[in-house]
Every structure is written in structure tokens, then in C-alpha cells.
Amino acid sequence: MKFRAIALAMVFASLMGTAPLHADKMQTESDHLNAYGTVTYRGIHLNGGENAAVAVSGLGNTSIRLSVHDDNDNLIAQTTCRYSTCTVSWVAHWNANFYVRLENLSASSTDFGFAMDRG
């Protein structure tokens, strides 16, 4: 999982446009996603103008949908990946709370790494 964390950090460096990451603002997790399961990360508060990026990387034969929503359930950004790292970045245009949803679109369960950076 250490290699996965380094790979996710490199993704963030390119997404956020900076080489050094804000370690105090970066959140990383590892978890398990059941077949056709969903995991939601809530309570992500961003101020207007703040950039954010989320990346997820699964293992095995799975397709993962990564989506970002505001607290009014508006879809902000979404992507689907298979066998690779999904990334989504966005700019908060107002002070708001957001949540990130991971959906396993496959009949196989998977372990995954999740990372979020704000800048």
C-alpha cells in the first residue's frame, strides 16, 4: 500500500499544480468495497475558491465510479475507472460541504486506497 500512497501523491502534485503537498490537508484511507457496494465520505468543507482533488485506486477486476456531490445532492464531478487510479478535481465556487461517493460497479469486491488533497 506504500507504493499506492506514493502514486496517489504524484497524481495530486500534477492535479493541484504544486510539487509539495499540503500534508496537514491531505487525507488518506484504505478500505474494502463489497461487490456492488458503496462507500461515502462526508463532512468535507471547502471555502469558496478552494481547490480539491480526490483519487481512488482499487485492486482486482473491478470498475469504480468516483463522484463528488454538494450537500444539496448536486453532482459536482464524476468519473469511472477500471484497473487504474480515478481522479477528480474541482473548485468550490462557494463555502459549502461536499461528499465523495465510491461505487463498485462489479460483481467482485476490492480493497482500495483513497486520498484527498485541498489547496
Provide a brief overview of the structure.
By secondary structure, the protein is mainly beta.
Description:
By secondary structure, the chain is mainly beta. It has a single domain, classed as Jelly Rolls (Sandwich), CATH 2.60.120.380. Helices cover 13% and strands 55% of the residues. It has one helix and eight strands, in the order αββββββββ. It has one helix at 2-16; strands spanning 27-33, 38-46, 51-58, 63-70, 75-82, 85-91, 96-104, 110-118. Strands 1-8-3-6 form a four-stranded antiparallel β-sheet, with helices on one face. Strands 2-7-4-5 form a four-stranded antiparallel β-sheet, with no helix packed on it. A hairpin with a 4-residue loop joins strand 4 (63-70) and strand 5. The longest helix has 15 residues, at 2-16. The radius of gyration is 14 Å and the shape is elongated. The two termini are 24 Å apart.
